[in-house]
Amino acid sequence: MNALSSVKLIDGKACAARVLVEVREQVHALREHGTQPGLAVVLVGTDAASQVYVRNKVLRANEVGIRSLEHRLPAATRQTELLSLIARLNEDPQVHGILVQLPLPAHIDEHRVLQAVSPLKDVDGFHSENVGGLAQGREVLTPCTPSGCMRLLREACGELRGKHAVVVGRSNIVGKPMAALLLQADCTVTTVHSRSRDLPALCRQADILVAAVGKPRLIGADWLKPGAVVIDVGINRIDEDGRSRLVGDVDFAAALPQVAGITPVPGGVGPMTIAYLMKNTLLAFALQQQATRQERTPCPSPC
Ligand code: GUN
Questions:
Q1: 179 with 160: CB under 8 angstroms?
Q2: Would the CB of 10 count as within 6 Å of ligand 1?
């Protein structure tokens, strides 16, 4: 957060730019040693939002010096074809990260596809091996959006230990891994969702509120404890005053006077997701180097 207390904006764009500088420097050092991390992005179908996300991911990868490989497949692609592509990418030594953009067309079993990605190349952190590893507090690849939110929170709040964090939403992509990361940071964590009783009262307990429900401006000022830090993951397109605009799950204008810090939409969490995809690609590269070294190390005798 800006040092001026009147400026409560948690600037995800600026923070993402700092993360990308770190990644670019590390990629540069690797390239000086003749290696280059590679990221394969797989898009099935023509979903408009997914096309924008994939384009931005590939652009960002190129900017930081990560080799990006884009695989665009028609919406009618059979599951077996997609699984064979993933098997090839798993074996490709130039590919260190594999991202299958979601949602997939309805005829494809999303779980089956995500489980086919090698856990060491799973830059989304969606494979059950990585989901389990996160729950156990092991160093594994963790989902990009929650990881980016944690960085914003660490910069905005400093020490997170003992804070009461309320996560609104229980998706596999954001809500559940977010709760696990906050728990790992020694927060007291409450996850609330559409079936929770008295959502506003539960949210008012939060020192840290993470909103990830996809409902435009659901959370008003009366849902927030004064002085709370708010991370708004929602990116909702609405029509207002005759124009289309993006808004979060939190009523930003109403919340601002009451909070200690809040992420704007756009320019908050969105840029952090892509920055952490790049960071995860570097981590995947490192994990694979480590695994290769372990394979090569001879077993102390007698084995
Ligand atoms: N679709 C929306 N968010 C995500 C994400 O974080 N990863 C992937 N693979 N697809 C998405």
A1: no
A2: no
pTM of the model as a whole = 0.94
Q: Is any ligand 1 atom within 6 A of the Cβ of residue 130?
A: no
Nearest to 68 by CA among 26, 40, 96: 40
Q: Which of 11, 26, 101, 121 is catalytic?
A: 101
* Ligand 1 mutation target, pool 101, 117, 127, most atoms within 8 A of CB: 101
Confirm whether 176 is a catalytic residue.
no
Exposed, middle or buried by CB within 10 Å (0-12, 13-18, 19+), for 74?
exposed
Q: What domains appear along the chain, each with residue ranges and CATH number?
A: 19-119 (3.40.50.10860), 144-271 (3.40.50.720)
Q: Which of 11, 122, 124, 232 is catalytic?
A: 124
Residue 124 falls in the annotated catalytic set: yes
The C-alpha atoms of residue 148 and residue 276 are separated, in whole angstroms, by 6
42 lines ligand 1 (CB under 6 A): no
Q: Is 100 in the pocket of ligand 1 (CB under 6 A)?
A: yes
For residue 145 and ligand 1, the question of a CB distance below 6 A is answered with yes
Cα–Cα distance measured from residue 226 to residue 260, given in angstroms and rounded to the nearest whole number? 8
pLDDT in tens, the chain (303 residues): 444 344 599 999 999 999 999 999 999 999 999 999 999 999 999 999 999 999 999 999 999 999 999 999 999 999 999 999 999 999 999 999 999 999 999 999 999 999 999 999 999 999 999 999 999 999 999 999 999 999 999 999 999 999 999 999 999 999 999 999 999 999 999 999 999 999 999 999 999 999 999 999 999 999 999 999 999 999 999 999 999 999 999 999 999 999 999 999 999 999 999 999 999 999 999 999 999 988 887 766 665
Instruction: Examine the residue annotation and report whether 92 is marked as an active-site residue of this protein.
Output: no
Burial of 241 (0-12, 13-18, 19+ CB in 10 A): exposed
